[in-house]
Amino acid sequence: MSHYDASSTTAIYATCDSLSYSGSWIGLLEGSNNERTTSGSDALRGTLIGKVGAAARDAFCDGWDGPGSFAVRPESLARALQVVSFLPVEMLASADVSITPSGTVSFDWDSDPQNQLSIMLTANNTISYAAYRPQGRTHGALDFQYLELPEEITYAIRKWRG
Amino acid sequence: MEPAVKPKKKALMPRKINGRFELSTYCIDALHPDAIWALLQSAFGRGIPARSDFKCEDIRKIPLETDPNWVPERHVDILGWPLDEDGQASRAQALVAIANGHLATPGQPTKH
Questions:
Q1: Which residues of chain B have pLDDT under 70?
Q2: Average pLDDT of the residues of chain B
Q3: Of B59, B97, B94, B93, which Cα lies nearest the Cα of B79?
Q4: Chain A CB contacts of B68 below 8 Å
Q5: Interface membership of B48 toward A (CB under 8 Å)
Q6: ipTM of the complex in this document
Q7: What angle do CA A33, B89, A101 make, to 5 degrees?
Q8: pTM to 2 decimals?
Q9: Is the CB of B57 less than 8 angstroms away from the CB of A7?
Q10: How confident is the model at residue A28 (pLDDT cuts 50, 70, 90)?
Q11: Rounded to a whole number, what is the distance in Å from the CA of A75 to chain B's nearest CA?
Q12: Domain ranges of chain B
């Protein structure tokens, strides 16, 4: 039952206090950040993997982002590392990594609100994407077999890069 | 004048509460900016670094729904989220595109 017909609303930016945890898989992620420095592109990929590790560390337990939030899924983490290896080098530095309240690893490129792209590692063997441009929005969930990114996602990446 | 800031999609994804997906917001009709910050600080029990403002008519075009349940006072849930995460992300991106972001300025409540 509505008591008021609001015409404008506001939302805070989500923040949370970090949980302290140092599990072995986090160590693996951080280790790969240090070891992969043989080339410029490897260094960028290593830095991005480090971002994945840092995001995952803050989302290790259910409830990490308030009621209804779930811990990061280990299988999503493993597939996130594979996605990093497939991304074009010019997308690596600008990627924002987060864990969603559902425990999904999300790579976001949203510094331009009019040209956004998200790639998400959701359930087993599935990769999801969402793309926003003024001309239209697309999104979907696809099989991900580790060998290459699905064609729909490589197309969305091409469109995002212009 | 409050500094503008671009919101992030990750801040605008819904949470599953009592079996439904919702994004918690507050009605700011007829409120001075200082009163908006005070409302949010009161609601969350701490200072906050930034906020995003939306016009409800723009929200409904996405399409999402607004539920001004007023519990607590001025509370409005944004509903109508798809169950799949890619669909949710797509609508959160649309919210980013229509949002007016504001950073808290010195003298206003800040995160501690």
A1: 1, 106-112
A2: 90
A3: B59
A4: 2-6
A5: yes
A6: 0.88
A7: 65
A8: 0.84
A9: yes
A10: very low
A11: 16
A12: 9-103
